Amino acid sequence: MTVTEHTPHLNAPATRGSCPFAPPPAYEQAREESPITRVTLWDGSQCWLITRYEDVRAVLGDARISSDATRPGFPFLSAGRKKVAALSGPGSFIRMDDPAHARLRRMLTADFMVKRIEAMRPEIQRITDDLLDRMTEGRSSADLVSEFALPLPSLVICRLLGVPYEDHAYFQARSQVLLDERSAPEEMSEAMDDLGEYLSRLAKEKEREPDDGIIGRLMARGELSAADAASMGRLLLIAGHETTANMTALSVLSLLREPDQLARLREDPSLIKGAVEELLRYLSIVHTGLPRAVTEDITVGGRTIRAGEGVLCVINVANRDEDVFPAGADLDVERDARRHVAFGFGVHQCLGQPLARVELQVALETVIRRLPELRLTVPFEDIRFRDDMLVYGVHALPVAW
Fold this sequence. Notes:
By secondary structure, this protein is of the alpha+beta class. The chain has a single domain, classed as CATH 1.10.630.10. It is about 50% helix and about 10% strand. The longest helix has about 30 residues. The N terminus is likely disordered.
């Protein structure tokens, strides 16, 4: 990486402040004072930190910015993350550029179209009600993460992919290793291999006996090897349950901390859809930033970034930019937050966002309606947040009703 200006004073990831929902104070200060600034990473390398909303969208939408982790200057947030990128496989289009990225992504576009996902809403509602029935039967307290927030999207993505839900403990354990920034490269390599082998075997079974799941239909196309289909399945499996699970638990927790906002949703359930967008903006659970590599010299926010340098777009900071979201540090369920970048921006924005929206809408509306006395059973200060995970959230959420 060829960075030519002063030595940066900021490290990435930065230290969190007192509010677990807020970005690190150093990042927010950078947005106000120097929205494009250099930071030092774990291995001593440097990249550019992009924190302003306008600049984040400009970078993520620029074809000269690459998602390919093999490009010079691509910033890795840990040794383990670097290892994962090297092992992701040819079917993991999240680390590809067009046209290869577009070719693979198009194979899945129909599965996540808004109309198709909306047709699943009754089934998602049924799963939600069944989980809450089991959680509340004969009891008055539970861990909302393990008994509701995690199994809901896990069940849904397993059904979409054609993965047996009875294997969920297997892939969730390995997902945790892959998302934990503290995991050693060897641990990540083993978890990647385990998931790859599991999904490759499944893909070969689907090739012999096709079904209507995504993996089965990918194999039926005859364009992918079992290993490629497994790479795509692994990406969808991890992203499809970890993100929504943590977003659901964090949303409930943040609403419990803002009883006036929760009261508005109870009084007017029609606010739920807009509230989900506001919660996505306010929480933005990818706190470590979106890494990219620059392939040609570009100018962003008046600053020149050279080819071969890396950038890190910090979307949770951009989503609190006061120029776009006045009082952005506040949760306001009546705010029009649809312009948020919680799902990214440009060609790589989250493919599964229609599914995530419906799952969150159904989950929050149902919890708020069915559990009017919901409350924490431990002090807020005792909640353990996932500070070292690629997807932010809470490890557990003990509640009573």
